[in-house]
Write a structure and sequence with these properties.
By secondary structure, the chain is an alpha+beta fold. It is 40% helix and 21% strand. It has a single domain, classed as CBS-domain, CATH 3.10.580. Helix 3 packs across helix 4. The two termini are 18 Å apart.
C-alpha cells in the first residue's frame, strides 16, 4: 500500500485570514522561518496562500507594461491586467490583497509520490491538503517529504 499525503503532512498548520494585516503574516513567516502560509476563511476553507514571493512586490515595486503610442491610441505590448495584479500586491495592506488565490492542493488520500511529483512539476514548496469540502486539514512541504525519506533508513 503506498504512503499517502495524510501520513506525512503537517497537521494543524499555521494559517492566516484574508483580513489579517499583512504585517502579521510577515511576522509569522519571519519568526517561524517558513516561506508561506495557507489563507483560510472563517469556516476553515482554503482561499489562497501567501508566500515570500507574494511579498516581494512590497519591496521591489512594479514596472508598468511596455506600450507604444499610435495616433491617439495606447497599444500595450504586455497584458495590462498583469500590471494591475502586481500593483495591487505592491500596495496591499491585508493578506487577501496580496495572496495568491489559485492554489495547487491535494487530498489527504493522494499517494505521497504523486504529490511529490506535483510539487516538482509545479515548482511549489508546499501543498495545502484539503478535504472534499475544501477545508484545510494539513500542509505538505518539501521538508515533510525529506523528513519522511530520512525516517525510512
Amino acid at each position: 500500500m503506498p504512503i499517502t499525503v495524510a501520513e506525512v503532512m503537517s497537521r494543524d498548520p499555521i494559517t492566516v485570514n484574508p483580513n489579517s494585516p499583512l504585517k502579521e503574516a510577515i511576522q509569522i513567516l519571519a519568526e517561524r522561518h517558513i516561506s508561506g502560509l495557507p489563507v483560510v476563511d472563517d469556516q476553515g476553507k482554503l482561499v489562497g496562500v501567501i508566500s515570500e514571493s507574494d511579498l516581494m512586490w512590497q519591496q521591489t515595486g512594479v514596472t508598468p507594461p511596455a506600450y507604444i503610442m499610435l495616433l491617439d491610441s495606447v497599444i500595450y505590448l504586455e497584458n495590462p491586467a498583469r500590471y494591475d495584479r502586481e500593483l495591487h500586491k505592491a500596495l496591499g495592506q491585508t493578506v487577501g490583497e496580496v495572496m495568491t488565490k489559485e492554489s495547487v492542493t491535494v487530498p489527504p488520500s493522494k499517494p505521497l509520490n504523486a504529490a511529490a511529483q506535483l510539487m516538482h512539476e509545479r515548482h511549489v514548496r508546499r501543498l495545502p491538503v484539503v478535504d472534499s469540502d475544501g477545508t484545510l486539514v494539513g500542509i505538505l512541504t518539501r521538508g515533510d517529504i525529506i523528513r519522511h525519506m530520512a525516517s525510512q533508513d
